Each structure stands twice: as structure tokens, then as C-alpha cells.
Amino acid sequence: MAHGDITHIDIPVGDTDRARTFYSGLFGWDIAEAPGFEGYPMWRAPNQISGGGLAPREEGFTSPRSYVEVDSIEESLAQVEALGGKVLMGRSQISPTSWWAVFEDLDGNRLGLYEGVTTMD
User: Fold this and answer.
1) Residue ranges of the domains in the chain?
2) Closest by alpha carbon to 103, among 60, 71, 62?
3) Which of 83, 99, 104, 113 has the most other CB atoms within 10 Å of its CB?
4) Whole-angstrom Cα distance, residue 38 to residue 114?
5) What range(s) does the VOC domain occupy (predicted)?
6) Angle at 57 between CA 85 and CA 39, to 5 degrees
């Protein structure tokens, strides 16, 4: 994926097993937990391109959140602030080769940033 592409969508859920049954039945998504990501099942659409996770619902995370791939999280977060947005969570490591962050735009929408390469196979 390239800078600016939507790379991942997290869906907040209260009951992972119930959500797994619902989404796999509704859309045919392949949903499984990867080693090292227990409690966070990842979904992949039949096109084998679209995907995301079923993440625990918590305060501040009650609506689906899209993640946009960027070349540099630090540079993107600086742009967020320069353009009037708000950094909610700075760069945080996912794996040795990937990171994420969360920001809020001018209308209060919360989006994630993704940088790097994550292999789940």
C-alpha cells in the first residue's frame, strides 16, 4: 500500500465471539487470531485485500476507526497539529517493523495512522 491508502479498519466490539460469528456470517470474512495478537482477532475480506481487527470496545473507542498508511507517523502527526487537528496517541509499536498512532480531525473524527510492514502469516 502507498502513503494515503486506507490499510486497516478496527471495529470496536463488546463480545469477540459474538462479533466473529456475526461478521463471518454476514460478509464471509475470514476471522482469526494471529500469534502475539491474542484477544484481537483480525478479519480479512474475501478479496484478500481489505481487513482489520475486532478490537475491544472501550472509552474513546466506540465507533469503527480507519487507519491510513503514511510514510512517516512523526511527520504526519506534525502536519495534523499544524493543520489544527489533535494528536490523541503518539507513535506506538505494533511489531519490530510497524507502528501506529491516533489523531482527531477538525470535526472530532478519530483516525489511525499506520507505518511499516506487519506480517500476520
Assistant:
1) 6-116
2) 60
3) 113
4) 20
5) 5-116
6) 115
